[in-house]
Structure formats: structure tokens, C-alpha cells
Write a structure and sequence with these properties.
The structure holds 2 protein chains of 2 kinds. Chain A is an alpha+beta fold. Helices cover 21% and strands 23% of the residues of chain A. By secondary structure, chain B is an alpha/beta fold. The chains are: A alpha+beta, B alpha/beta.
């Protein structure tokens, strides 16, 4: 079984550059002020590549892929 | 303690703090457990079901247990940085009976085997002096050192992660943390933040035992709590009451008229409005408020008379809360002033079309998108106001109601 991940925004670091939404438009859209609205819940397997690209694209390293905790 | 006071037992009418000697005369000796008894202490506390009194109502023992499990270099912070403008209970407790708080702090420090213990208060004002003097009285008793931490007199300074950051020499601003602070906080150390009233309650509970503690209150929420009570134009009053006491009884005791009331704000600026007359029968407990669709929060009870405009009063509070944003997170920094502005337009009468929709949309945008729950609290306050004062909303859509805000929702003028 593969692990599940979720996208987490570090709100203190995020400056609304918006690159994340360009790289993963199916997972992230921007609000009227340019800040990311992330689809809640685990990233679907098909979206992981885009999610990783979005994480890499953030100029202030505000986006992270965190493993979803198993209970 | 025949007058029902427990937390405030023996406190002086002149506003001066009980000396250590006076404190021990009122409460008796502090039963400090021996080293290695942390587990017993925790087990004891788990059974007590004591809930935190900082506003979130989190079970205190769970925080202590999480820290104990997570490591041996825990940081324990007593939160006396009462940022909620309508709340006076924490500063009152510290000013009148600091040793009860310090007792609780020593007990909690044992329970988590804390490496470092900090007591945080706002700078300026009387609290740094009161705490310093009380700590000086306790030297030579074999207690753990307590460091006094002064933080800026701002709303977010008392937020748990902001305290952790300040304790480490950083700014008093909320911090990112992917795990609960009690598991991994400042410098990856377990960081436990407990409200000063929670600590005072711990000290009473461990001194007197569950039977005594549970003689008042409810079965699930034993004991007493501190409340800050305010009505139109009156000076706010801090009262101690058993959990489960009705809003009516509390207002009566505080001398706030209950006839001709429009609504009561319970929980303060993170709380919710509840309509009169039903609110008068609501029991003041975590469960009682939850059942009524409100929240107990930090124990604030504000009565709004029929002569005042609840929307106008709320708009003033929201304007203040927007200005108190830490300004670290885009949604809060942008969204709260937008909401405040739209509310002001509504209150002024005949707002632009779509104002209510905009408030709802922005409320959705600021919720859960930030480093702390400040915006979530504002949203809850706004939603409850629009709901409870729905008739006023309709009136304001067509013009100003011309009632005043009343003198109930205080916002600080200048610094303390």
C-alpha cells in the first residue's frame, strides 16, 4: 500500500505568489487576494505528481506534502 | 469557605494580593508529590475531568499526559496573558491570589517533569510586580524556578503558540506547528500551555480531593469557575460561581438587570450571542452552552439591553479584532478588515447590494486558513450576531436603526 499525503500551507510564510495553483490547478485555486485554497483531504494518487511540482515551485517554501497520520 | 468562594477564597477586598502566609492559612499546606510521582499525579487528574479555563475547554490532564509521554524536557507555560478585552478574570485571580496559581504551576511542573517553567503576563500594569513579589516569597521551599515572561499587551500574545515562541525569545506571534504543542512545540520540546485559572483549579483539586471538589458544579464539570460579567454602562464584575449556574443567577448576582434584555454574549469575542429570554435559563458550563448553540469560552457574560443595537455593538468589536490580527497570514490580514468594513456599511444603513453575501463569502475564506484561530473566532461572533439580530439586519438594509451600541462591548483605548 502506498502512503497518503495532504498539502499543508505554512500561512506565516505564504505571500500569495500563486505558483502552486499554476502547477496543481486541480488541487489548489487562489482566493481573491491571491492566497491558496487547498482541496481538503488526502491528495488523490493521480494528483501527486502535480502536488510535488507545486511544492517545489513555491518560492518561499510555504507548501509541504505531509504524510497523513494513520490511526 | 462558607461564602462559596473557592478559587477566590480569603481574597482581600482592598485588591492586594494574599501573602504566602495568608494564602497558606486560607488553603492549608501544598501537598507537593515526591519525585517520581508524576504518573500518579496524572492518573489522579485524568479522573478529575478538569477542563481548561483558557477558552477552548480542553481536558487539562490530556495535555499533561501528552507532554509526559513525549519527552523529558517539557516546557510548561502558565498563561496569564489575558488578551480578550472583555475578560478580567485571569488578572483578578493573579492580583488577588497569586499563590494559588503558583501552587498549581508547581504541581503541573511535577506532573510533566518540566525542564522549564514560565509564567506569562502582559507587560505594563500591576501583574509583573505582583508575580515577582509572590515568586520572591516562595524561595527556599525547594520549588522549581519560575521565569516571569512579559509579553506585549495584544490579543494574539496570549495564543498558545505565540507564548511558546516568546518563551524562546521570539516574537509574540502565532507559530506554525503540525502537531499539538504538548507533543512537539518550541524547539521540538513538548510545550504545555495552561491558563492560570486552570492551574488554580488544579491546586484546589489536589489539595482537597475529588469529593470536596465535586460538592458543587455538575457531574461532568465539577467545581467552580470565574466569570466576567457586564451590563450596559456598569463596571464589569468578576464572580466565582459553580459550574452549571444559570445566566439569570449570574446576572442577578452581578446586579445586571434581566428585565428588558435583548441578548447575552457568552464567551466574549470568541463567543456567540444568545437571544433573551431563553438565554437566561442556560446553565454556564461547557455542556450547557454547547447545547444552547453557544460556547462557554473564557467565561465572559455580556448583557445587551433592548435599547442598544446588537449589530452596531458587534461591528465595533469586529473592527477591533480585525486590527488585532498578527498580520502574518494573508486570509486574516485581508479578510477581517473586509468583513469589518462590510459590517460597518450594514450598520450605517442601506448597504450596497450583496453586502450580506460578501460577509458570508469572506467568512468562509478566513476560516481555517491561518496559523491560529483568531479569524475563526471572529467569524463565529459575526455569524451569531447576524442570526440573533436578524430583525435588525432587515431594518438596517433599509436604513439605520439609530440605536446606540450600548456601553457593553469594550475595546481598549490606548495601551494599558
Amino acid at each position: 500500500m502506498s502512503k497518503a499525503f495532504r498539502l499543508r500551507v505554512d500561512w506565516g510564510a505564504c505571500d500569495g505568489h500563486g505558483l502552486c495553483a499554476q502547477w496543481a490547478p486541480e488541487l489548489i485555486e487562489l482566493d481573491e487576494w491571491g492566497f491558496p485554497i487547498v482541496t481538503p483531504g488526502p491528495v488523490p494518487a493521480a494528483g501527486l505528481a502535480h502536488a510535488r511540482a507545486a511544492v517545489d515551485a513555491c518560492p518561499v517554501l510555504a507548501l509541504k506534502l505531509l504524510a497523513v497520520a494513520r490511526r | 469557605m462558607t461564602d462559596g468562594r473557592r478559587l477566590l477564597a480569603g481574597t482581600r477586598g482592598d485588591g492586594a494580593a494574599l501573602t504566602l502566609h495568608e494564602h497558606l492559612t486560607v488553603h492549608g499546606a501544598l501537598p507537593l508529590p515526591r519525585r517520581g510521582e508524576a504518573k500518579h499525579l496524572q492518573h489522579h487528574l485524568q479522573g478529575a475531568g478538569l477542563r481548561g479555563r483558557g477558552g477552548a475547554g480542553f481536558p487539562a490532564a490530556r495535555k499533561l499526559a501528552a507532554a509526559h509521554e513525549s519527552g523529558r524536557n517539557a516546557l510548561l507555560i502558565a498563561n496569564g496573558a489575558e488578551g480578550e478585552p472583555a475578560s478580567l478574570k485571569d488578572r483578578t485571580l493573579l492580583q488577588l491570589t497569586p499563590h494559588l496559581v503558583l501552587d498549581g504551576l508547581q504541581l503541573a511542573a511535577r506532573a510533566v517533569n518540566a525542564r522549564e517553567v514560565v509564567l506569562a503576563v502582559h507587560s505594563g500594569g500591576p501583574l509583573p510586580g505582583v508575580v515577582t513579589r509572590a515568586l520572591a516569597e516562595r524561595t527556599g521551599r525547594g520549588e522549581r524556578d519560575v521565569r516571569l515572561l512579559e509579553v506585549p499587551n495584544r490579543y494574539v500574545s496570549g495564543e498558545a503558540s505565540a507564548l511558546a515562541r516568546a518563551a524562546g525569545g521570539g516574537p509574540s506571534l502565532p507559530a506554525l506547528h503540525d502537531q499539538p504543542l504538548a507533543v512537539r512545540g518550541l524547539d521540538r520540546r513538548p510545550t504545555v500551555v495552561l491558563n492560570v485559572e486552570t492551574l488554580a483549579g488544579l491546586a484546589l483539586y489536589l489539595r482537597k480531593g475529588p469529593s470536596w471538589y465535586g460538592e458543587v458544579g455538575t457531574a461532568e464539570e465539577p467545581g467552580t469557575l470565574l466569570l466576567t460579567v457586564r451590563g450596559d454602562g456598569a463596571e464589569p464584575v468578576v464572580l466565582e460561581a459553580p459550574l452549571g449556574t444559570s445566566v439569570r443567577t449570574v446576572l442577578d448576582t452581578a446586579g445586571v438587570p434581566t428585565a428588558d434584555l435583548q441578548a447575552v454574549l457568552v464567551g466574549g469575542y470568541f463567543g456567540a450571542w444568545l437571544p433573551a429570554p431563553d438565554v437566561l435559563d442556560v446553565p454556564l458550563s461547557i455542556a450547557g452552552l454547547a447545547q444552547a448553540g453557544g460556547t462557554l469560552g473564557a467565561g465572559i457574560v455580556i448583557a445587551l439591553p433592548s435599547s442598544a443595537c446588537g449589530l452596531r455593538a458587534t461591528a465595533g468589536a469586529v473592527r477591533y479584532l480585525a486590527a488585532e490580527s498578527a498580520r502574518q497570514c494573508g486570509p486574516c490580514l485581508n479578510g477581517l478588515p473586509a468583513i469589518a468594513g462590510a459590517l460597518d456599511q450594514l450598520v450605517a444603513g442601506e448597504p450596497p447590494p450583496g453586502t450580506l453575501d460578501k460577509i458570508a463569502a469572506w467568512s468562509g475564506l478566513v476560516s481555517g486558513r491561518g496559523l491560529c484561530h483568531h479569524p475563526d473566532g471572529v467569524v463565529a461572533l459575526v455569524r451569531s450576531a447576524l442570526h440573533v439580530f436578524a430583525e435588525d439586519v432587515q431594518e438596517h438594509l433599509h436604513g439605520d436603526c439609530r440605536r446606540t451600541a450600548g456601553r457593553v462591548l469594550a475595546v481598549p483605548r490606548g495601551t494599558w
